[in-house]
């Protein structure tokens, strides 16, 4: 299965005083892409809100390999690195590549689902969650 990919538009506000992309912009891009992918797979913010659950991150790590500058064309790809049997805990990975195909950064996140009322880890709708998580391409 192919990775979920999208093109990142680099904005002036994404730059730091050294004229390359500031570190926190990478995390913003990853978060936005994850929300969009979940939404496209049927696990929308509305579904999560109606069922009182949402994603929570334990770890988010970015390894920076090449600078990204204004004018670069960046593709960000998302895949599932690992997921437990019921879909309640998972690790996802984003690969950010430039127009030459060079790997610029890797973002790895470990997460789970939280019950937004009880404020505890939960898998309130295991059928929906696991079916959605199975739709992700698996990282080899």
Automatic annotation (TrEMBL):
Any one GO molecular function term: fatty acyl-CoA hydrolase activity
SUPFAM superfamilies: Thioesterase/thiol ester dehydrase-isomerase
InterPro entries membership: 4-hydroxybenzoyl-CoA_TE, HotDog_dom_sf
Coiled-coil residue spans: none
Name of the protein in its database record: Thioesterase-like protein
Organism: Fluviicola taffensis (strain DSM 16823 / NCIMB 13979 / RW262)
């Amino acid at each position: 299965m192919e990775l979920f990919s999208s093109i990142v538009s680099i904005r002036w506000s994404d730059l730091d005083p050294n004229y390359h992309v500031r570190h926190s912009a990478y995390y913003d891009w990853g978060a936005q892409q994850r929300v969009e992918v979940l939404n496209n797979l049927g696990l929308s913010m509305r579904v999560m809100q109606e069922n009182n659950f949402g994603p929570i991150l334990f770890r988010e790590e970015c390894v920076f390999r090449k600078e990204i500058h204004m004018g670069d064309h960046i593709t960000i790809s998302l895949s599932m690195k690992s997921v437990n049997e019921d879909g309640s805990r998972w690790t996802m990975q984003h690969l950010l590549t430039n127009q030459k195909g060079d790997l610029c950064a890797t973002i790895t996140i470990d997460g789970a689902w939280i019950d937004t009322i009880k404020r505890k880890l939960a898998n309130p709708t295991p059928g929906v969650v696991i079916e959605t998580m199975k739709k992700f391409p698996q990282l080899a």
